[in-house]
Write a structure and sequence with these properties.
By secondary structure, this protein is of the alpha/beta class. The chain has one domain: Udp-n-acetylmuramoylalanyl-d-glutamate--2,6- Diaminopimelate Ligase, Chain: A, domain 1 (3-Layer(aba) Sandwich). It has 5 helices and 5 strands. It has a 5-stranded mixed beta sheet with strand order 1-5-4-3-2, with helices on both faces. Strand 3, helix 3 and strand 4 form a beta-alpha-beta unit.
């Protein structure tokens, strides 16, 4: 699945416009602890987090994260969005809770794996 396909499937808002829409998604990861993501998030995953500071971009780049999803319509500063575009990292937003986004992502990925 690509980031672009995920946008439509989960009804996500692309904060970084067309950045990394062809990025491949193979897994998902939910954590708000950066060191946990560094240690455990698989490459080509969608990272769901309430963190919205600039450091999430460094972690995403390090782990080759396809996209970061912010739940609950949380605001992301323009400086973070612009840096994400420059780094080629898709920033997405959902009005749903992290729990709901994760559950829906899991369902989509498992259905695709069959």
């Amino acid at each position: 699945m690509t980031v672009k396909e995920l946008l439509g499937t989960l009804d996500l808002e692309p904060l970084t416009e067309d950045t990394n829409l062809e990025g491949q998604i193979e897994a998902g990861y939910v954590s708000d602890l950066l060191s946990d993501v560094i240690a455990n998030a698989p490459e080509n995953s969608v990272w769901i987090t309430v963190q919205r500071h600039i450091n999430i971009l460094g972690v995403a780049k390090l782990k080759n994260i396809a996209a970061i999803v912010t739940p609950r319509s949380l605001a992301v500063e323009l400086a973070v969005i612009e840096k994400a575009k420059a780094e080629g990292i898709a920033l997405l937003r959902s009005d749903r809770s992290a729990f709901e986004v994760a559950g829906r992502l899991y369902g989509v990925l498992m259905k695709e794996a069959r």
